[in-house]
Amino acid sequence: YSSLAIYLRSICWKDPTSKFFQAQRAHAPAYSAYRIRQAEQYVESVAAERWTQGARKNPPELCIGIPSVQRDGISYLKLTLGSLQHGLSAGERAGLRFVVFLAHTDQAQHPDYGQTWLTGMADILPSYNDDTERLALAKIMESNHTHGTKSKFDYSIVMEECEKTEAPYILIVEDDAVFLDGWRHRTMKALDEATAKSWGAGYTDFLYLRLFYYEGLLGWNSESWPKYLGSSIGVVTCVLCLLVLTRRYIPATRLHLSRSVFVLTTLAFTPLLIILFFAAGSNCMLPQPTGVQLMSENACCGQGFVFPRTTVVNELLPFFRSNRWSEVPTDSFIEKYVDATGGLRWALTPVVMQHIGGQSSHGVSRDTYGNLTGGNIWNFGFEENDAETLAAEHVRVNDRTL
Q1: Which residues partner with 124 through β-bridges?
Q2: Residue 243: closest CA among 230, 229, 257
Q3: What was the pLDDT predicted at 50?
Q4: Burial of 287 (0-12, 13-18, 19+ CB in 10 A)
């Protein structure tokens, strides 16, 4: 039993739902730090060479929208954009549109306003000044300091700008995330899978594909205790039946399978193993299947959603407009809508992005960009990525598409 506990401790340390979770070790940004360095280098090259926009597909395959606001003493926007674009082939880049919205009535308040790298990397840079109604509403929201209301307003503007490109899918990203090498081909493949599964379930479309989630909310839930209790009783019953059948049909075992063995096995050893199973954590014991799966409950947060264009036009934009002054946070606002309408919420495993914004209590710092860990909002599996493996996968995919 002790040996098994030691083994589980060695493999479950990165599961936040596990009793063996090692927070400081699990928050080490092994792969994120690598991608940040690549993103920085890429952005510097764009700024130095004053890149011009290359050929673009019309309509694009995917529109990426990033609403961004000024943060005190820090900006992650260049890391988000840099990791999204670093490593893309010319063909991949041609099929994407990048909409970056500096969400201030005076955009000069944003530290990245007017930067050479930003104008070189963004395809569309909208402003409140593009529309008098938008500008008037934004001024009211800024003066009232209604963060929840304004963040949804900004989100809807980015969706509107992406919708205008006529891309069949729209990815909305928060401005404090990094993406892995090869995120695009994995995302496009996942969209095909989500579409096929939606059709198979009798739906013409889905609400969103989630590209990021926090494993800490995918643990053992107190609401499900009857299911866990029933499963545990079932395991004990199966063990008891196995012992009875073994004793009955294999006479040689009767000498060893005494009544005390039955009692110890079913009332002590098996329950202890069950306790160890639950202590090890749900992500470690029952990890999310690879690929696209439904994630309708206990999912957080809104760092990266891909929406079908039809869903944006027919459902989300009307809902955002009709509830413009709601102060519910954007991700909760979207979840509230889908809870009421019953749309499909898909999630991609493994995730293709990491949340790096915010402050961490674990002290994993990196000079200019502060703490890399986004507090509790962190995908621990993302850091297991191997840079060489991902780069080789990306090359293989591009070779097949040439």
Answers
A1: 99
A2: 257
A3: 63
A4: middle
Instruction: Give dist(CA 106, CA 28) in Å, integer.
Output: 37
Q: Domain coordinates of the chain in residue numbers?
A: 24-216+302-401, 220-280
**Residue in 105, 143, 176 with CA at minimum distance from that of residue 375:** 176
If one counts every other C-beta atom within 10 angstroms of the C-beta of residue 351, the result is 25
Mark the ranges of the chain whose per-residue pLDDT is less than 70: 50-54, 358-375, 402
pTM above threshold 0.85:
yes
Residue 207 Cα to chain centre, angstroms? 15
Domain 24-216+302-401 CATH (choose: 3.90.550, 3.10.20, 3.30.40, 3.40.50): 3.90.550
pLDDT of residue 178: 98
Q: How many other CB atoms are there within 10 angstroms of residue 249's CB atom?
A: 8
Other Cβ atoms closer than 10 A to 59: 15
Helices (H), 175-281: 183-200, 225-249, 259-264, 270-279
Paired tokens of 160: 């509107």
Q: By three-state DSSP, how is residue 317 classified?
A: helix
| 377, 355 contact by CB (below 8 A) | yes
Q: Do residues 14 and 26 touch, judged by C-beta distance below 8 A?
A: yes
H/E run at residue 148: helix 147-164
The per-type count for the chain, helices as H runs and strands as E runs, is: 17, 9
